[in-house]
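Entry type: protein chain
Record version: 2
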Amino acid sequence: MTEFEIVDLRTSAHGEKKVLAGHTPAVVATAVLGEPVIRSGTPQNLIAKVYFRSTDGERNMVRFYRPAENPARR
């Protein structure tokens, strides 16, 4: 499993950091945040950044967003 550093941006711009092992950034982010996440969205819906190292040692980052409310789908 890969070790991921999750930065929760819901409470502040600097965020609370947690480290957790998992299979994918999305699974780990969902587990830490307790809500569904998507990989694309608008800046106001940004809720987390997840950092991890690839097999070649490069540090990578994925942004996760809160799904937007879509009144047409209700």
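Comment: Residues 25-33 form the longest helix (9 residues).
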